[in-house]
Fold these 4 entries.
Entry 1:
Amino acid sequence: MRTTLPMLLICLLASVPVAWAEGEPPAAAVGPQENPFTAHHRGVYHVVQKILLRAAEKMPEEGYGFQPTEAVRSFGGILGHVADSQYYFCSVALGEENPAPKIEKSRTSKAELIAALGEAFTYCDRAYDGMTDASGADLVVLMGGDTPQLGVLGINHMHLMEHYGNLVTYLRMKDIVPPTSEPEFMATVNE
């Protein structure tokens, strides 16, 4: 874990310019701040939220069951998994019991999954908004190992972007332009 976490954080930080390629970085990511590390994570997280919600909105209802092969989740299944994972990672960072709503197994429609994803982001907002650089250094147990709270949120970012990559492929297979390839949309993510 000692070498894994720094490597994961490097990967996370290396991906940030891609999200900001079409616009200015979020206000939380520039200028001197009282809590620059957590402000940076919060800014990146809010950009990723908008990108994932936009991807969910772009896929038509009939595409939510799309599964390129039986070995992978459907488009809707990925969104349900992402929502469930938000509760997992953020409950660890918050020091709370995971509410474990089992969204992936219980929701299938576009409207249900977009609503559930929004609720999961609202739950996670508490973890991001309540953390300072000092509290971000506090250790919690994640997957059996000690991890700084801010590290848990960094892993959450990576997990979100991993699955956004899946969604991009599914959207492209349906001839739908993904959000990060829409200059007009990307110009708005920092607002």
Note: The helical segments are 4-19, 36-58, 75-94, 103-106, 110-129, 133-136, 149-173, 183-186.
Entry 2:
Amino acid sequence: MPPVRDVVVLVGSLRRASWTRRIAVALAKLAPPSLKLEIVEIGELPLYNQDFDDEHRIPAQWQAFRDRVARADAVLFATPEYNRSVPGVLKNAIDVGSRPPRAGALNNKPAAVVSVSPGALAAFGANQHLRQSLVFLNMPTLQQPEVYLGGVASLVDADGNIIKEETKKFLVSFLESFAAWIEKVR
């Protein structure tokens, strides 16, 4: 049996009842025994300012975030789409976690992306834009299966339970693929 892998989940929506957060909760419930998914909150991270790093005045929230991500075996990004890209809060977390360049907490961490939308496009733009950043950050990212969840209001309930059996099977398959990916690239 493979070891249990610690996966940090970064949710790109701050709303308590967001669809993206509900899907992240659902993924944690559906994860195989080899994955332990934990949502790490990013809403309280101060905006990235390189002066803090350069002057060794790293905010405590940054350090705690960097330490937690550094301990993880992998990162799962769950994002909605804002203006055809990722929300600013998620981009800020990526900026904080990527420093110092080529040695930050995100460097070389296996990753996967799930995008979520109540609309039909399923946050395709955010998913693809995020993947561009992950290439630069040296994060080997699961290519298949891709997860674009459109019409999410009909897929998950308020408690983070997947309503449709077909969607549940697909997400379980995605998580199994992600677990195998982590083992392959670690």
Note: The chain has a mean pLDDT of 95.
Entry 3:
Amino acid sequence: MYDVVVLGSANLDLVVRAERHPRSGETLLGRDYREFPGGKGLNQAVAASRAGASVAFVGAVGDDSAGTRLLDEAGAAGVDIAHVKVVPGVPTGRALITVADDGDNTIVVVPGANLHVPAGLPPGRVLLAQLEIPLPTVVAGFASARADGARTLLNPAPAILLPAELVSTTEVIIPNQHEADLLGGEDALVAAGVRTVVTTMGEDGAAVVRPDETGGGTRRRYPAPRVVPVDTTGAGDAFCGVLAARLASGAGFDDAMRWALAGGSLATTTAGAVPSLPTAAAIEAFLSGAG
């Protein structure tokens, strides 16, 4: 049994750096262009693996050079890629990313092979998924995982209307502030049946809402460690992957949140998604004040 099974997307990230984001109809000159392995699923799988978990990634890539590169990168990070489907004649997914000088980013994703992610899952203690793959695949995966006694974590990105059968099988949902608003807010998610809502807020840390005896929600804030950001791409994925890894290890929720926030902060200090994902040793050093 794996510690963490990640069900999600794999993309090649095409990243341009510019002074700022262009306004509507405006053309800007970029200063730098690089390609990185990415996709929320692959990012989170690598993050969980580097945080010390045994990880299986369930996804799909095309039979092209980009797909080969993504599989090589994930395998090199210790992720089991045996459950990744290679789809003939379909391009590997791409993400078009603009990173401004302040580290903020905008992203457009072209799914490609991610539309063909298989539904079958290996056994795991924690299932972590996102919404860059077909929704029915996530719904089926969560139902299967809950039936097998696994913990289920959902990163609802991009934010879409969540069917009741997915909400009912989600233990922890992890939106950012924008996604939480699009989903109706933390209290609405708790009222709909989600057991724990973790809203990430960038440099402001995270807010956790859980149901109380009155049917409402209790709220707690967790601060984020301070860093100087270089590129925020992948920070949310680092948070999700590290949180899944720590929960799978049997750590308490507060400890898992502390690690996840440290992992997310560290990820902003290096350019690129996968290159920025920290190891367990780096997170431990950071938390102890040595990093």
Note: Residues 2-22+32-282 form a domain with the UDP-N-acetylmuramoyl-L-alanine:D-glutamate ligase fold (CATH 3.40.1190.20).
Entry 4:
Amino acid sequence: MTSALHPEIALGVNIDHVATLRQARYRETPDSENAEPSPLEAALIAESAGAEGITAHLRMDRRHIQDSDIFALKSTLHTKLNLELGNTPEILQIVLSVKPEDVCLVPENREEVSTEGGLDVAGQLEALKPTVAALQEAGIRVSLFIDPEDRQIDASAKLGVEFVELHTGAFANAVGAEKDLELTRLIRGSAHAHAQGLAVNAGHGLNYKNVRAMFELPHLVELNIGHSMISRAVTVGLDAAVREMRALLRR
């Protein structure tokens, strides 16, 4: 498998954990003039540092990103907004009013620290159909966050979405020979998704040490990365953190 299929991978910067830090102190008053740090300011810094897009997850429990953040991002960003959401009527209506360029449907569990595992598209096909249709009718491109499994990829293609985002968490957490096996799953999943007419993104658990392995995935368009860069920003600043990651995604 050659990595020369894509000399450069686009970078989407997830700003959820900027909002997590704000909510730690300003949970009751996230729109206060004292509330900091600002997810919008972080997004603009990420854009200026070379990010091709900004990703944010509007959760049902509003543990980090708030409704006002989403509207502010959409009205201000110069690149594109990629909204992550669970398949819930309330959040769907908000997203349809915001009209981001991209949406990624993800599983959502109130007890999880962060998104765990991929969406069971094959098992939720009928429930997802009206949501996908409503988003596409509004001119929004749809992605599904899935594990690199043929049945999930085939179900995604059946729904007619534009993208899948392959869940890289198992790869990121694996060690030794298991890591090689997980990378092989991602490579095969990416090839299969492309063969089904789907564009391929990936993300979850990627960092400055493991991200270069993603060049092995054929047809990969974009990586969405958040926690690693926000963590790095604590010591070097967000501009430098994004530029460092952006450089790793250029061959």
Note: The domain at 10-248 is CATH 3.20.20.70 (TIM Barrel).
